[in-house]
């Protein structure tokens, strides 16, 4: 196919363009990067126009904008809707990066930068595959792009946009590259995603910071109280103690669990890679099951009192924590958020005040391996990688997958090309150029096979 | 007495000079204020020289310097050693201050600034009482000053200085104004002080920050683990669970406890002042007892993960806490620090690494109400305030009191003039000018009565 040759011939430019995009610190969570988030959107708009997309526009929302582009070659042909996001996670802690997060570098065949994999690198594979097919006049079906800038903060405004643009977004399949494969030796397709419920807790003790000597022991310390509350959220079997939390969790059959555990996984390598002596999780489940099919709870951040250099004997007025749970079918993120909020408020002792603020959430999703989308993706991987993909269930959350099936009644295919070692959301996030180029090729084949359905 | 008139006539200047001292941000805990700490020492040296002290010197230590000054009028007369400190607590959180911490303002007869009471304001009362007595030729005994700059970080180098200067520091009593009275209606003298053991805990889970979706549930989260560990340090009766922690605690007799509980205290006012619905503490003890005679444990600071704006779904590599305990006779701070360190290391689960770093500590101290120093102080308060003082036991720690009795075999008298409402160690620390002036007068009388002993 001409497109594949075109990709080969334009490799270096495809990389240079991605570097340019990675240099824009489009951190959606932090308002001080607001201008940069828009810059990233404008970068995409300009590129779409250059490579021959039609009706390219920056769609305003109550938050960061959504970039839309399309190419309708023949209304009677199938339509692929590409979803991705151009915003990135905050880069802190900056001091743990070996090179500045927004100055991409190529090292050992890997691109190091915040967003290299999640999701600029993976999203841009679609843009370049589209460029190749258009340039070689090999685009076999209609394509629509919807690239948002709020995925890392919960896609709050995407729901509204989708609801208001059902016609415009009409399509036969949605394809998303924002997940990982098991390894380059074992390409895989994610068929299960977790939901998310994210809350912030504020515990207030005395109305001002106090001297821990003059008041210590006489007044509740909100940090100690917050620790008590957090510790009580999980029992010694690693189960979450919030009443009703597991009510809607679908237990997999032993067959399904066996299938899941067939995925190549080595516990010793896993521990070695993370530098830990032991893993920890819910009793009675393997690590793959804990991460893939069981709901989980993590404190994502905690702070209170004096956290500077040296020692300060303060009994603080306030303590805070950011707590999130990952959800599995059929848990509903709004219900769970309500459950957690009510539970935290109900266990708050009367010697403190507790304020719980829901941040954002999303529902879990499981996609079928029978649909045309999955079938075309599997064929494309087999063609490009020389191996049939393994279906896997991933601990990550892409809330919009559930949103799309509700709002647009269209299945999503998760054609991710990332690896665990990409360390997304961490310092020194990276993305292998092998995966970047292989992804562009795979996506090109995906279009061919899907058009033939 | 002439000196009292002199104080009256120089009130405004005494206040202006204190303001000048308060403008120097001499925060000993934070190395970026190192230069300012020395500035405060130099301010004192200059003032001592101006008001007629002899052998004034800035004594270097491994850390911040100690200011020494003296006036020996007659070796056969008794000698008073004044101890105080010119360093202050960190001022954060700055945003909670109504006026900048190092720009003192006078409002409703109160001086608002970091260090206004603890201890610049109280320490400077001695300097100005000394000035008055020298100016009026009414100094009735020998006086030595030892003003340090590391009290807020554990007086690490004071011990060395004292040990190396026993002869120079020879005295009949040590007087310290770094404590509070019950109220201006109920002047009191602190006869009991708590010891302190302060440690920092670092919990390390995975060797890097992880995506909480991809790894959550499969790997221990160091924040959750730290919360579990902290929660386990106290039981539901408010007792500290560290083995051996209470072994050396001297239980007071019912008579002593009754005596202690005679001090004027209103629980409703206490709760109202702190804005809390309920108090919390060790079962079986009153608030006065919990704060005064029982050992306590407080988390003074905690941090880990993402603490910025918005939401970040991170499973962090590390979590930290600063933990301190207040000790009572006969607990030894070094023993307790060792106990806590060993305990924290022993309860650390094998899925994390725990590092415990002792910060600083001090031993508890109880001073006698029979000694000449206490008697002279009691008479001075009766003279200046028109009321006999109530002996109290205070939750605060002045480790050097125990150090002095060990090293110099001299009793200390805690002639503090602060009030709880001064909010030391908190934002908007303040000191009443009534207490400032009344303190200068009380100290002047103290010298007269002690000289007569």
UniProtKB/TrEMBL annotation, chains A, B:
It holds the Pfam family M20_dimer. This is Dipeptidase. Residues 193-351 form the Peptidase M20 dimerisation domain. It comes from the Bacteria. SUPFAM superfamilies: Zn-dependent exopeptidases. It comes from Reichenbachiella ulvae. InterPro entries: Cyt/Met_Dipeptidase (IPR051458), Peptidase_M20 (IPR002933), Peptidase_M20_dimer (IPR011650). Keywords: Dipeptidase, Hydrolase, Metal-binding, Protease. Its EC number is 3.4.13.-. One of its GO terms (molecular function) is dipeptidase activity. The lineage of its organism: Bacteria, Pseudomonadati, Bacteroidota, Cytophagia, Cytophagales. The keyword Hydrolase applies. It is an enzyme of class 3 (hydrolase).
């Amino acid at each position: 196919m001409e497109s594949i040759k075109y990709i080969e011939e334009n490799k270096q430019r495809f990389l240079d363009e991605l570097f340019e995009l990675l240099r824009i610190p489009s951190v959606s969570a932090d308002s001080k990067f607001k201008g940069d988030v828009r810059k990233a959107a404008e970068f995409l708009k300009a590129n779409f126009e250059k490579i021959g997309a039609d009706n390219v526009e920056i769609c305003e929302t109550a938050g960061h904008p959504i970039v839309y582009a399309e190419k309708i070659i023949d209304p009677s042909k199938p339509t692929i809707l590409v979803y991705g996001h151009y915003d990135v996670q905050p880069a802190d802690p900056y001091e743990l990066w070996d090179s500045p997060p927004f100055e991409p570098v190529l090292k050992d065949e890997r691109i190091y930068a915040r967003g290299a994999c999640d999701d600029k690198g993976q999203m841009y594979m679609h843009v370049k595959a589209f460029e190749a097919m258009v340039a070689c006049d090999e685009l076999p079906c209609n394509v629509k792009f919807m690239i948002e800038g709020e995925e890392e903060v919960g896609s709050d405004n995407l729901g509204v946009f989708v609801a208001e643009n059902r016609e415009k977004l009409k399509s036969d399949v949605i394809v998303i590259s924002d997940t990982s494969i098991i390894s380059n030796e074992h390409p895989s397709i994610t068929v299960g995603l977790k939901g998310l419920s994210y809350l912030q807790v504020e515990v207030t003790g005395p109305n001002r910071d106090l001297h821990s000597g003059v008041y210590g022991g006489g007044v509740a310390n909100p940090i100690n109280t917050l620790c008590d509350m957090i510790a009580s959220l999980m029992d010694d079997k690693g189960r979450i103690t919030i009443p009703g939390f597991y009510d809607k969790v679908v237990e997999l059959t032993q067959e399904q669990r066996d299938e899941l555990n067939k995925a190549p996984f080595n516990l010793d390598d896993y521990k070695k890679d993370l530098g830990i002596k032991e893993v920890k999780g819910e009793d009675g489940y393997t690590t793959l099951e804990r991460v893939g099919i069981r709901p989980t709870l993590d404190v994502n951040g905690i702070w209170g009192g004096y956290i500077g250099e040296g020692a300060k004997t303060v009994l603080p007025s306030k303590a805070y924590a950011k707590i999130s749970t990952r959800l599995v079918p059929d848990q509903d993120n709004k219900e769970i958020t309500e459950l957690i909020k009510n539970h935290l408020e109900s266990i708050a002792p009367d010697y403190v005040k507790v304020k719980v603020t829901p941040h954002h959430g999303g529902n879990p999703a499981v996609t079928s391996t029978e649909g045309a989308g999955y079938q075309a993706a599997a064929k494309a991987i087999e063609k490009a990688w020389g191996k049939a993909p393994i279906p896997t269930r991933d601990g990550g959350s892409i809330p919009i997958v559930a949103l799309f099936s509700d709002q647009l009644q269209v299945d999503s295919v998760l054609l991710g090309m990332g690896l665990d070692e990409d360390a997304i959301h961490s310092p020194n996030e990276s993305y292998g150029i092998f995966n970047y180029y292989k992804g562009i090729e795979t996506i090109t084949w995906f279009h061919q096979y899907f058009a033939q359905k």
